[in-house]
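W.,

You were right to be curious about this one. When I first looked at the sequence I had no strong expectations either way, so I just let the prediction run and decided to look at it fresh. Below is the sequence, 114 residues in total, followed by the output.
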Amino acid sequence: MTKTDPEKYGFLCHKQVDRSIYIRNKPLPICARCTGILLGIFTLPIFHMGILNPSIYIMLILAAPATLDSTTQYMRWRTSNNLLRIITGFLLGSALAVLVVISGSMIINNLQLL
């Protein structure tokens, strides 16, 4: 479990090379789950434009797999793999996109009431 250079990439994630995705035999500077989260955030336009209706329930459903995967892995009940980490990270990133859209809508609605 070696890490990449922390000074080079800051405090983005744990940066464990064995949990990173490799491109041309070099690990990405962040782990598979964080890569999935960053990719999932790009779903924001889908929720913002109303292609999918954002709601708190959707956000919780999207965040649940990453929570279960990371918790069960942390408790050493099972071992995860990079494919599962990137998929659950993508879902969590999508949940964050939903949170941004919901929060933004609430702020806009409250500003209109003033």
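Here's what jumped out at me. Residues 36 and 89 are 4 Å apart (CA to CA). And, maybe more interesting for your project: Strands lie at 20-23, 26-31.

Coffee later to discuss?

I.
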